[in-house]
Amino acid sequence: MWEWSEDYTPEELMVVCGAREIKDGDVLIVGSGMPLIAASLAKRTHAPGCTMLLESGVVDAQPRRSPQNVADCCLTPGAASVHSFFEMMATHLQSGHIDIGFLAGSQVDKYGNINSTCIGDYYRPELRLPGSGGASPIGCLARRVLIMMRQAKHRFVSRVDYITTPGYLDGPGARERAGLPPNTGPVAVISTMGLFRFDSETKEMYLESHHPHTTVAEVIENTDWELKVSPAVKPTPLPSEEEIRLIRQELDPQGMLRRVLR
Amino acid sequence: MWEWSEDYTPEELMVVCGAREIKDGDVLIVGSGMPLIAASLAKRTHAPGCTMLLESGVVDAQPRRSPQNVADCCLTPGAASVHSFFEMMATHLQSGHIDIGFLAGSQVDKYGNINSTCIGDYYRPELRLPGSGGASPIGCLARRVLIMMRQAKHRFVSRVDYITTPGYLDGPGARERAGLPPNTGPVAVISTMGLFRFDSETKEMYLESHHPHTTVAEVIENTDWELKVSPAVKPTPLPSEEEIRLIRQELDPQGMLRRVLR
Amino acid sequence: MNKLMNMDEAITRFVHSGDMVYLGGYGCRCVSSASHEIIRQGLRGLTLVRCSLSDETDWLIGAGCVSRLLTSIVSLGVGMGLGAAFRRAMEQGIPNKVEMEDYTNLSLPMMLMAGSLGIPCIPVKEMWGSDLLKFTSFLGKDKFKIISCPFTSQSLMMVPAINPDVAIIHVQQADAEGNAQVWGMEGDCELGAKASGKVIVTAERIISREAIGRDPNRTIMPGFRVDAVVEEPWGSHPLAVTGFYDIDQEFRLMYREASETIEGFEGFMNEWVYDVRDRPGYVAHYQEKYGIERLEGLKAAPYFSPSVNYGY
Amino acid sequence: MNKLMNMDEAITRFVHSGDMVYLGGYGCRCVSSASHEIIRQGLRGLTLVRCSLSDETDWLIGAGCVSRLLTSIVSLGVGMGLGAAFRRAMEQGIPNKVEMEDYTNLSLPMMLMAGSLGIPCIPVKEMWGSDLLKFTSFLGKDKFKIISCPFTSQSLMMVPAINPDVAIIHVQQADAEGNAQVWGMEGDCELGAKASGKVIVTAERIISREAIGRDPNRTIMPGFRVDAVVEEPWGSHPLAVTGFYDIDQEFRLMYREASETIEGFEGFMNEWVYDVRDRPGYVAHYQEKYGIERLEGLKAAPYFSPSVNYGY
Predict the structure, then answer these.
(1) Is A55 among the catalytic positions?
(2) Catalytic residue among A11, A12, A21, A55
(3) From the CA of D212, how many Å to the nearest CA of chain B?
(4) Where do the structural domains in chain B lie, given as residue ranges?
(5) Which listed residue (B55, B204, B208, B243) is catalytic?
(6) Which of C88, C151, C198, D18 lies 20 to 30 Å from A43 when distance is taken between CA atoms?
(7) Best mutation site among A94, A95, A138 for testing chain C: the one with the most C CBs within 10 Å?
(8) Band of pLDDT at residue B262, cut at 50, 70 and 90
(9) Which residue in C237, C197, C203, C241 sits closest to C220, CA to CA?
(10) How many angstroms separate the CA atoms of D213 and B181, rounded?
(11) Under DSSP, is residue D20 helix (H, G, I), strand (E, B) or coil?
């Protein structure tokens, strides 16, 4: 069987955690970077039957280099289908055919709401951020949303400055009351320090496992609300040697992932 | 200059009359048969800059045989663009970019309303007819509609059994009141016996010219309402020899037009 | 996932009596072969969604498979007029009454598009003043709704989304996963397939996943949305497939004439549907009866597209 | 009708200060060259419609051409983040305040699609619960409307159609009439162009009408809807064009860094926009500065599509 690898970076572990959330047969919508690598890793290991859609309009891309962005021309040759982000968003996502969406953002709050629009006041922002792109519709309409973010106190906040992408809004039933489809919403947050899930009753985020290179106390310290911790909290399982090999040798040979995040 | 041709069939004259309604630069939507030949004739003579759209999704078709229907595969190779009838109907017609639509039908009435749905009661038809296809939207949304029909008393009726395609409904202002865009509607009816236009005040159809092989009296006899006749009524100008040559030798070498109508 | 199966299995698994079935094709790429299998399996009570119906709808109606028709035009084309089976059903209720909801070549694909977009309805700018608004059939008051436009306050006509249970489309080529590619006239296949719950792709030829990737813009339906893939050469006959074969007008006229009487219709059905097991059997019978030359004569002449570069 | 003209004439005739301008491109086929000409002509007060903006929007904002932005995301991509000129305009009003209406990659193309379909609005199923509904900009109450669905009685969100004054799209090839063909990622070019009053097509190469007809499915915009055609090799640089050249990330990062200061931005603009007359001048300057090898190195490697048969 696999050997566990002690040699990994936090970002590589995030990718491995992302891959583990994917079930065989899932239809995923991903951007470039970590989600693309996570999905590719799942496809190469336990989920060969999953389908990867890129927001830019590409189904089952076969890139021969690490894409520089979601619309990199290297994603086109060899793909199963290439059209438009409109096709992805409207005819696959809005029509209810996406199982998993991967999202990132600058802030996430305890209900999994994500902010990628602005820090401070919307009309007079301290910091203007990219905005929604595909994030808001993915967060509204994908069955399961996985959030990948660097852990930091100013990023894991009690309430985001602006809800670009609705998580559970302000608690149980709020999504449905707001008009969103039932059985959708974030299922996990994967950070540089731990893996979080949402309480099925309260819809509040809690710590499921801390990454082996950090501690529960450190995670709590880097979270800006009173973080709940699973009674069964444990270290996140290590990546396998095979997973690390696949990432480094085949899925991200240019090490772009590590370059970007450091 | 051109010589007039005494040698023509009623259908050939109809095609020539249709061609004469087309101005250079017009964008036309046509079916196969007479409208396609009329448009092609205009393009080969006085309107080289007109653009012909086929309802089936073809722009500027270059057929090498007489198409058997509007979706004949011979319309595809060499065309400027090939997609779908949805593209034609929704993105070119509904968005207001069609100057001329050619329509036919089983009945037309004095306000230019067309029936291609049923004879008798809709729910218990004596005769079920094809239905709208693209006719109703073309009649609703093209700037000018040209109607081509065989003349007969049971076809030129006071009121159609079913309005598939709205003409002027029941008179001046009725189209606009019903919700149709201003400055649209039928401008001419071309039959096997004459050319009809619509009075700008009353919106009622009147005889503009009778084809040379028939008389005003004959036209009136084959119309089921008290047909108004232009005080300046005259015989329809003959086709030119060049027009007849183009039709017979180049635009309808298989003589399909004549076969179909007899 | 390999979804290749034969037509028998595809229809058995994914089309059921009472279903709303979208049929693809517009003059070409018609689902002739799938329709024959539906008839052989004796399905009943289907609601067909078909923008511009062709021979297959007439067969299905005549064989008693159809209860309802959501369509825009029912002519079989120039020189053919309305199908005789259709007319018997509409005018005399033979073999059964068929209810028909009349739309147009604008509103019906708009409704399929709304279905494909996952939205419940969509505005259209037509039908005003016509009797399409006056007479409705099985959709009743849900044929259309007139509301006040929330932006302009003018009257706005809304038509409902259509989401068929299953779509059947015939394409030039597909791979075993269901990535389906077409060229030539597109009809409303993509809209119809994307609006439907299940999708059956029948294809003139099966190609590799790698070959699909050489020209991914031609894919109109990605494999993950497809449930069954059937390799079915001559699957559209007697209708055409661009790049494969031309329309067989002689055969169509033969059917048109035969179907004028119930006996003639039944004779045609026995010979071309019930007495052959599948499409290969149909093609073999055709060859036997009319000679290989006639079949060969239908095959497409070459008119090849230039290659384009997808490189970077 | 021959609509070939140079970029100078196309922009002069069809883009005016105060216009709402749709810009095509999504990662590739960006309208870089047309944007430079807009800057050179000193147009002001533009409302840009751009679903996923790229470098050209940052140049246009920094050069003071833009008053309003209708968009969904403003990142220049991984490793680049937000454009510095964009941020100066938003956060400090330099060189002028830019109002921005935030939508998403679903709603904004839906709005363009509604525009292309000639309907005044269209339902979307997203944005519920988000602050996109709470904060509006220049569209005010017309950013969206919530109505009761006439079919289901549930709340239905409607977004308005967008009909820009003019669209600019960059394509692989077009003929002199404007028949425009693309392959690779399509972005929302077809929707944007069809929604707009006027259309400028810029193309990597001009081909004959006959060559267009060899593969008419690749045409995304028929010539009769196009007003100007500009032959503009390297027209998307530093962004890519599938089959022609790759992204020039080094050049983009150079701009990104330079634009951090106003002086740096102005230096870049002088060198690459104001001091060159047109795109050939820009390409000549690039070659002179960086050598022909670097330019050649961007050219696409071969990955050719198979030919398909359009015959019958």
Answers:
(1) yes
(2) A55
(3) 6
(4) 10-259
(5) B55
(6) C198
(7) A95
(8) very low
(9) C203
(10) 34
(11) strand
Asked if residues B32 and C78 have their Cβ atoms less than 8 Å apart, the reply is yes
User: What's the Cα-to-Cα distance from B162 to each of A102, B86, B187, B222, C151, rounded to whole Å?
Assistant: 54, 25, 20, 20, 33
Q: List, for residues B132-151, the tens digit of each pLDDT value.
A: 999 999 999 999 999 999 99
- Distances, alpha carbon C290 to alpha carbons C284, C295, D196, in Å: 10, 8, 54
Class of domain A10-259: alpha beta
CATH of domain D7-102+163-288: 3.40.1080.10
Beta strands in chain C (DSSP E): 20-23, 46-52, 66-73, 99-102, 121-124, 145-148, 155-160, 166-174, 180-181, 198-206, 219-221, 228-231
Which two three-digit tokens encode residue D239? 């962004």
CA-atom Rg of chain D in angstroms: 20
Segment holding A156, helix H or strand E: strand A156-157
Three-class SS of B140-195: HHCCEEEEEECCCCCCEECCCCCCCECCCCCCCCHHHHHCCCCCCCEEEEEECCEE
Positive or negative, the CA dihedral A66, A68, A71, A73 is: negative
Which pTM does this prediction carry? Answer: 0.97
Q: Which residues pair with A81 in a beta bridge?
A: A59
What is the nearest CA distance from D12 to chain A, expressed in angstroms?
A: 30
β-pairing, A144-149 with A186-191?
parallel
Mean per-residue pLDDT over chain A, rounded = 93
CB within 8 Å of C265: residues ≥ 6 apart:
C62, C84, C85, C258, C259
**Residue B1 parent element (H or E):** none
Write the CB contacts of C67 (distance below 8 Å, at least 6 apart in sequence).
C44, C45, C46, C47, C96, C98, C99
Which pLDDT tens digit goes with each residue over C118-158?
999 999 999 999 999 999 999 999 999 999 999 999 999 99
Interacting residues of C92 by C-beta distance below 8 A, sequence separation 6+: none
Max Cα separation, chain D? 65
> Contact A59/C194, CB-based, under 8 Å?
no
Q: Is some CB atom of chain B closer than 8 A to the CB atom of C48?
A: no
Length of chain A: 262
**Pick from B87, B206, D73: which is nearest to C113 by CA?**
B87
Nearest to C303 among B69, B77, B132 (CB): B77
Pairing of strands D20-23, D46-50: parallel
- B180: amino acid identity, one letter: L
Around B130, how many Cα atoms within 13 Å sit in the side-chain half-sphere?
27
Chains with ≥3 Cβ pairs under 8 A against D?
A: A, B, C
> How far is the CA of B62 from the CAs of B73, B80, D209, D230, in angstroms?
11, 9, 11, 26
End-to-end Cα distance, chain D? 29
Alpha helices in chain A (DSSP H): 10-20, 34-44, 85-86, 135-141, 174-178, 216-221, 241-245, 256-261
In the predicted model, is pLDDT for residue C178 greater than 80?
yes
Q: How many whole angstroms from its chain centre is CA C176?
A: 21
User: How far is the C-alpha of A255 from the C-alpha of C138, rounded, in Å?
Assistant: 61
CA-based nearest residue to D180, from D36, D53, D307, D4:
D4
Q: Does the distance separating the beta carbons of C185 and B58 come in below 8 Å?
A: yes
> Which residues, 6 or more positions from A201, have their beta carbon under 8 angstroms from its beta carbon?
A172
ipTM beyond 0.95? yes
Residue D263 is which amino acid? Answer: E
Nearest to B29, CA basis, from B48, B59, B47, B54: B54
